[in-house]
Write a structure and sequence with these properties.
The structure is a single chain. Helices cover about 50% and strands about 10% of the residues. The chain has 3 domains: about 160 residues, no CATH class; about 100 residues, Rossmann fold (3-Layer(aba) Sandwich); about 200 residues, no CATH class. A hairpin with a 5-residue loop joins strand 8 and strand 9. It is built from 17 helices and 11 strands. It is of the alpha/beta class. The strands form 4 sheets. Strands 3-2-1-4-5 form a 5-stranded parallel β-sheet, sandwiched between helices.
Length: about 500
């Protein structure tokens, strides 16, 4: 019998029984997540311990000590047990930290470093002769492998979520359009593992005063009964769900008795966790929002990373350049490169270089194929563009046509990661908020590239670009580059 069957059966059988916790499936999922993390950590540490013991005895450079095996069988289990207990005490098995963000990984790394320090201090004070080679190998290998193991587990769980498994059923309460906004995010980010089953109308509003596309399951003054009938595990409260703080407290007490997970969505969106700082003051949870990071994204660290990355890319990809150039020339004996004026940081124009993937007079033919446009009118998009050449279809599918932009990156006109470089005619149609995209250098790849590429709507592309501009970080750039490789190899959304 599969785990998924157990969780789904638990959700069905607890949904409508009085006195039985509604969130039984939610708790079961969380126990499974925590248990899986314990198993992964224990397996990693067991493998690392064996590798450290063998490495201590077989790698040259370490002093041979016949007494090492006498203590290893006693010391290794103790260190592994202490390490696991420390990880638990540090809260690394808390399910809420295992879904998103870097808190889980940083806690695992920090806790492992603390355990190493404590073991070293104990051995010194107790004058216990622990092999320094074993100690070095155990913690030098174990710490990064624990982080890798947690990352792999998170990706596995997210993959299950995206395939409709191990999901938490939620009901959203609030006013329209806040309900629909939250539902759209939870649907788009399916890897979070939430399945929206309906909406609740605030009890202080007249029936029918707010209508969501989800349809109303009931009112917030009967939230527990509605959750039981819907078989939901949690309720998400958005803007306008409560008329007062007193009503909020009453609802929290009621949901606590029913053992229901309560999630509150503040009226801030598209702001990274690094810019938010929650500080309770006089019973009020004040949320301090840091300044946007568009200026930080243009400083020396990012520029140095761009220079090193572009130089390395040009050197490594030079054989690919030769093959693609030959294929383009042999196809129609036309120009190998295509140059187009784009706008960079602060609206400065530059010549963007790409491998030519279309016929020579592609721009002149654009009006004649306008009827094939499936975009929003700002950008021309078509998965059946007749202007694309035979080699062009291949290099566009895998984004090989954009590799010459490494030259633009080296010249400082573009960045490895950033918003999509716009055409001058596109900027003419920008709304005020869309001009914020020009505050940083455009990028060869970005959130738009790893989130769907040409499958995205114009509004979604703008939203992702603005999020990047306001919430830039070096770690985010590295994550986007890693995700770009997967998106490009998959070829989804490229045309």
């Amino acid at each position: 019998m599969s785990i998924d069957f157990f969780v789904q059966r638990r959700a069905r059988t607890t949904g409508g029984l009085p006195g039985v916790p509604i969130a039984g499936a939610l708790h079961a999922l969380r126990r499974l997540q925590s248990g899986a993390a314990v198993v992964v950590d224990a397996a990693v540490l067991a493998v690392v311990a064996v590798a450290a013991v063998l490495g201590r005895t077989r790698i040259g450079g370490f002093q041979r000590d016949t007494r090492f095996f006498d203590t290893a069988f006693t010391v290794v289990p103790v260190i592994v047990l202490v390490w696991l207990v420390a990880l638990a005490v540090a809260g690394t098995y808390a399910p809420l930290r295992m879904t998103v963000g870097t808190s889980e990984f940083s806690r695992v790394a920090t806790t492992s470093t603390v355990v190493a320090g404590l073991v070293g201090i104990y051995c010194y004070l107790a004058k216990f002769e622990l092999s320094r080679g074993f100690f070095l190998l155990m913690f030098a290998i174990g710490t990064p492998l624990l982080v890798v193991g947690r990352f792999a587990l998170r990706r596995a769980i997210q993959h299950l979520h995206q395939n409709g498994r191990w999901r938490v059923r939620v009901v959203i309460a609030g006013i329209h359009p806040h309900i629909d906004d939250v539902a759209e995010v939870l649907h788009r980010e399916a890897w979070l593992g939430y399945e929206v089953v309906g909406a609740l109308t605030p009890s202080h509003l007249e029936p029918g005063a707010t209508v969501s596309t989800l349809g109303s399951l009931g009112r917030t003054d009967a939230v527990v009964e509605v959750l039981r009938e819907a078989g939901a595990d949690a309720v998400v409260f958005t803007e306008g769900a409560f008329p007062s703080s007193a009503e909020f407290r009453r609802m929290a007490w009621e949901l606590e008795e029913a053992d229901v997970q309560m999630i509150v969505v503040p009226s801030v969106s598209d702001i990274s966790a690094e810019r938010l700082d929650v500080r309770p003051v006089g019973g009020l949870p004040l949320v301090y929002v840091g300044r946007p990071r568009s200026t930080t994204a243009s400083r020396r660290l990012k520029r140095a990373f761009d220079v090193l990355g572009s130089v390395a890319g040009l050197l490594l990809m030079s054989p690919v350049f030769l093959v693609v150039a030959a294929a383009i020339w042999l196809d129609d004996h036309g120009p190998i490169f295509f140059r187009q004026v784009r706008l960079g940081r602060d609206g400065r124009p530059f010549s963007c270089v790409k491998f030519r993937s279309m016929v020579r007079d592609a721009e002149a033919l654009l009006p004649s194929i306008a009827h094939l446009d499936v975009g929003s009118g700002v950008l021309f998009k078509s998965d059946a563009d007749p202007r694309i050449t035979r080699p062009g279809r291949f290099i566009r599918r895998f984004s090989v046509d954009e590799l010459p932009q490494l030259v633009n990156v080296l010249r400082g006109e573009m960045s490895l990661v950033g918003p999509r470089p716009p055409l001058p005619r596109e900027v003419l149609g920008y709304a005020d908020r869309e001009h914020r995209r020009l505050r940083v250098r455009p990028g060869m790849t970005g959130l738009w590239q790893v989130s769907g590429r040409s499958d995205l709507s114009w509004q979604e592309t703008v939203r992702l670009d603005l999020y990047y501009v306001d919430n830039w970080s070096m770690l985010q750039d590295l994550q986007i580059l890693v995700r770009t490789v997967r998106a490009v190899l998959g070829g989804r959304g490229a045309y």
